[in-house]
């Protein structure tokens, strides 16, 4: 069992009633609760959502807190400080004064810093410290007014050949405050991407999707991500720029296996984090298996850190990988499937 869950269970007597577990680990925690506790789970990770569904849990997937009454909430500390602010505010706005919010996390994950974010909402108490984790309790002492999801988005502008784009990024979304170096390196090459049916894998705030849509109104973009905050950000970015809703399909996915077939192109600044930990599984699988989702003559465009072995993986599966750019620590990689002579 995850050590964060173990620490929570050490203070089991503090838990009671209808409890919302937020960002909970995919372990056996729910099986440890008796009839006095009625748990529900809120996650924004689509893989975690499938796990809790398989456990027959009451689970909600999305960027917004489920609309229901809860007696208590347990927040498992996310990586992003801004995301924790969002979670605390929303939970405090939905629970009644006098309710308890528990915060649990690893020391290496910033639990001591995170505990300070509880202070504006009421009295805090450290309940436990074990397994390299801490558990804190907050007792709400006042009501909080809820804010709309859009109020939490950071906004910045980028340039494209067809005019500026306004990017909207919610808390916890990759590169929330400004365009990241990797995507900035890739953008000038997007005009070379074959137009048509295109997947933006790991769409984040929708920078690549919106850029491709702005470049060519005939492009049909499938914006895909495991993270509900990323998907909501992409939708906001399209709305903000008044891009045609017919151009975009936003979809939660567990990985590239959920992408459509017969694509003209897959474009990605691939993800490599799962919470606090670094995890290259999704991006390596993209390099290994994306070919099966492309039509004959279809293209793969990836930007990645220079030190990663993606060129080798792509070469093994496409036969060839071309480095289009190598600058500021990033490579833009290109590969294509063998074009059938019968196809135009």
Automatic annotation (TrEMBL):
Ranges where the Methyltransferase small N-terminal domain occurs: 5-156
Domain Methyltransferase small, first and last residues per copy: 165-333
Lineage: Bacteria, Pseudomonadati, Pseudomonadota, Gammaproteobacteria, Moraxellales
Protein purpose: Specifically methylates the guanine in position 1207 of 16S rRNA in the 30S particle.
Protein name from the UniProt record: Ribosomal RNA small subunit methyltransferase C
Subcellular location: Cytoplasm
One cellular component term from this protein's GO annotations in UniProt: cytoplasm
Domain of life of the organism encoding this protein: Bacteria
Classification via SUPFAM superfamilies: S-adenosyl-L-methionine-dependent methyltransferases
């Amino acid at each position: 069992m995850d050590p964060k869950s173990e620490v929570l269970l050490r203070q089991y007597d503090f838990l009671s009633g209808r409890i919302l577990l937020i960002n909970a680990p995919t372990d056996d925690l729910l099986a440890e609760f008796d009839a006095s506790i009625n748990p529900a789970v809120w996650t924004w990770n689509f893989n975690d959502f499938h796990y809790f569904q398989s456990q027959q849990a009451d689970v909600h997937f999305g960027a917004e807190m489920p609309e229901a009454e809860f007696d208590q909430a347990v927040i498992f500390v996310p990586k992003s400080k801004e995301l924790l602010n969002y979670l605390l505010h929303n939970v405090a706005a939905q629970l009644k004064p006098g309710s308890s919010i528990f915060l649990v996390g690893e020391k290496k994950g910033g639990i001591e810093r995170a505990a300070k974010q509880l202070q504006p909402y009421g009295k805090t108490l450290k309940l436990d410290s074990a397994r390299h984790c801490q558990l804190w309790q907050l007792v709400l002492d006042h009501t909080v007014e809820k804010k709309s999801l859009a109020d939490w988005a950071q906004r910045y502008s980028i340039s494209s050949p067809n005019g500026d784009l306004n990017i909207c990024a919610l808390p916890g979304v990759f590169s929330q405050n400004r365009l990241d170096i990797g995507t900035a390196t890739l953008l000038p090459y997007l005009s070379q991407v074959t137009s048509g049916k295109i997947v933006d894998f790991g769409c984040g705030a929708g920078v690549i999707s919106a850029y491709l849509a702005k470049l060519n109104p005939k492009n049909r973009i499938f914006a895909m991500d495991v993270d509900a905050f990323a998907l909501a950000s992409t939708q906001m970015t399209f709305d903000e720029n008044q891009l045609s809703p017919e151009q975009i399909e936003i979809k939660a996915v567990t990985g590239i296996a959920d992408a459509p077939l017969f694509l003209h192109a897959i474009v990605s600044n691939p993800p490599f984090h799962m919470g606090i930990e670094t995890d290259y599984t999704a991006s390596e699988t993209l390099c290994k298996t994306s070919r099966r989702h492309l039509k004959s003559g279809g293209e793969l465009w990836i930007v990645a850190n220079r030190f990663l072995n993606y060129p080798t993986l792509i070469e093994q599966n496409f036969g060839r990988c071309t480095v289009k750019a190598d600058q500021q620590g990033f490579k833009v990689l290109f590969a294509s499937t063998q074009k059938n002579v019968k196809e135009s």
